[in-house]
What does this fold into?
Amino acid sequence: MSVSPIDTTLPPGDSAQNNQYTRYLRDNYNINVIVDWTAAEGNDFNQKVALCIASDTLPDGLVVRSQSYMLKAAKSDMLYDITDLFQQYASSQVRGIVESTKGRAMQMVSYNGRMIALPNITVTTDGVHVLNVQKQWLDQYNLPVPKTLDDIERAARVFKERKPAGDQTIPIVGPDKNTKLYCNFIESSNLSNGLDPVFQAYDVYPGYFLDNGNGTVSYGSLDPKMKEPLQRLARWYKEGLLDPELGSRDQSGEPVNANQAGMRFGPWWALGYGNGDSFKNNPKANWQAYPVYSAGGKWNVHMKAPGTDPCLISRKASPDVAAAIIIMYNVLVRDEAAFDTSVAIGWYPLRTVAAAADETEYEYKELIKVLKGETRPEDYKNPMSIYKLMYHDAQLIKGVVPGYTPSRELNVEDFSMANAGDFNRSYAILIGDRPYATVPIDKEVYSVTYSMTDLLEQRWPNLWKMESEVMLKIITGQADISAFDKFVSDWKAQGGQGILDDLAANYLKK
It folds into this structure.
């Protein structure tokens, strides 16, 4: 298991092998969990996984943090073919969640036409990045809600000049030293404080491999149109509209939670889950979420992989053990809301998230109905629903949003913060996910691949390092925009062109 070195939620006497989750499995399903080893999440865990694959010592079950580990193990014939077992043991609820991805989740965990892992399925909106803005700052200076990059720039200038948070005011927060400038094909979602919407407003998709529609593949970061957003970002940085510590700050979340930042970009959960201390520090911090449109009024979005953390089952496992792991998957999906939420669910053995692709959009629409009195919580009492937390959330929502008024936009003062967990989730769904739940996207862009090919595995680390360094230097003024042209030629010369040719030959859908 991957464990958090800083998580302190396990009660005294409990362990990775003996806790509320493992006891639940033993008492109700006669499944006894033995934890072969644990490692700290991140590099320590990934190194241990790589060692297990290299030495053919996979435990019976293992959740990995990248599909590339699954493919390595599959190529070495280390994984259990669960195609038939999944059909026999997967619950109707789990099968429904898998089907919600329209085949994409199954494709991610298949090898040579056979199912070789349990899929990690996260909500689609994890990959949809929008603008987060402190609306009370806009109202304070009679500014309209920004729609385009020009609007965002105008608001940022006012924030810089008026300094609503004093000298510590940061108009737009950006990535810190630990995060990417934008998503890429292998990490296609959940980038808080990244700059994805800026590029997408120019109809460019850095980090993604794109099907050109003529049998060839291009790489979004090489698009000549990249120059325009890079130059805009460089101007924002030079003029103090972007965080002066962009790319070097320890944690971009710190100025957000201190309410020193006016705007940032992020996924749906970035509001509520992602900035909880902001509300603790100022209960009137009215963070709102909005789409970012192109100058022509289009909302362009790069779409994420269905999920990146599959659960592997060793080829050496017995059929009973393989079946038990599938049953554990069923149990977590159905009963997640039944556990004591003060204990991190990361202690659940072999936990890989399985959520209906449209779960948050469905909940947004249904929770609004509950608030309006059009439906009752009891209407959602179905333990096998693919929207597994809907009934739980519906029971709580009127208490969490006592100030709901149908005729106006929800704001922070409509919410009760009495229970932080309920507040965070409700705020994330009803405000953070409101754009994706209510506004149609004009253009959805998918990557040709969301996993490492053999060639990418060899060449990607160096290519991505070069790209990250060049783009950051351009944005922060350490390099002129002419560095982009050199990057394009260097990327192709250092193995990138071979990757494009390989993807076109072997990975385009025929």
The two ends are 38 Å apart (CA to CA). The CA atoms of residues 363 and 390 lie 6 Å apart. The first strand starts at residue 2 and ends at 3.
